[in-house]
Specification:
Elements: H1 3-9, E1 16-23, E2 28-36, E3 50-58, E4 62-64, E5 68-81, E6 84-90, E7 97-103, E8 106-111
Antiparallel strand pairs: 1-2, 1-5, 2-3, 3-8, 4-7, 5-6, 6-7
């Protein structure tokens, strides 16, 4: 899917980032999340409230942000502006904030 479609389809606020990997040679960025299914417009009570997913970005021309394991980083905002998808995350105490800026051609959302 395009980054615009990802931005329109999924609401990431309050989902937890468990790990971020970036392979600059393959131009792939992966966000491993404990995703809030309950926050989606198409959520049904029969679904689990949260679950593990991977959001993969392909054709990553530029990435600015952290990588590695996360210590309970929550997504507080996402935005798409001028071709750059920005994910704002902070720690559980709202003391440290990071911006992940991703310039990619497409994305994939995989439920584990």
């Amino acid at each position: 899917m395009t980054i615009d479609e990802l931005n329109e389809k999924y609401f990431f606020h309050d989902s937890i980032v468990e790990r971020i990997t970036y392979d600059s040679e393959k131009k792939i960025l992966e966000l491993y999340l404990d995703f809030c299914f309950w926050a989606q417009t198409d959520y049904k009570n029969t679904q689990p409230e949260t679950g593990k997913v991977i959001v993969r970005f392909f054709g990553v021309n530029d990435y600015t942000g952290i990588t590695g394991e996360s210590d309970w980083w929550g997504i507080t905002d996402t935005m798409l502006e001028n071709g750059t998808y920005t994910v704002v995350i902070d720690d559980d105490y709202h003391e440290v904030c990071h911006r992940l800026e991703i310039n990619a051609s497409e994305a994939d959302f995989v439920t584990l």
